[in-house]
Amino acid sequence: MTYCKLGDLAFTVQAHNKENIGNIIRIVGSHGLGRWYDIEGLTWVWIVETEGSPLVYEDQQGIKYYESTGAVPDIFLRRITPSEELVEESKEACHA
User: Fold this and answer.
1) Would 31 disulfide with which of 45, 51, 67, 87, CB 3.0-4.6 Å?
2) Chain centroid, CA 29 distance in Å
3) What mean pLDDT do residues 44-63 have?
């Protein structure tokens, strides 16, 4: 089971680089199962696009660089879901 799915809007709740926590992202693709920094074993990794601040990554030498599209493990993300009220308003608008 994953926290997110393709097309979801989500935010980061954990990150190898703390600057990435709280970023709003959209899931646009999947790397599938892979390894990620300090996570033991395999984890599901998404391809995401930022909806604001760029993602911060580090190369092998520890030099930081910034990207608007990149990879993020599912375990670091939480899907943004609309409120029940917004869902009901949307349903009513569709049927009007």
Assistant:
1) 45
2) 11
3) 93
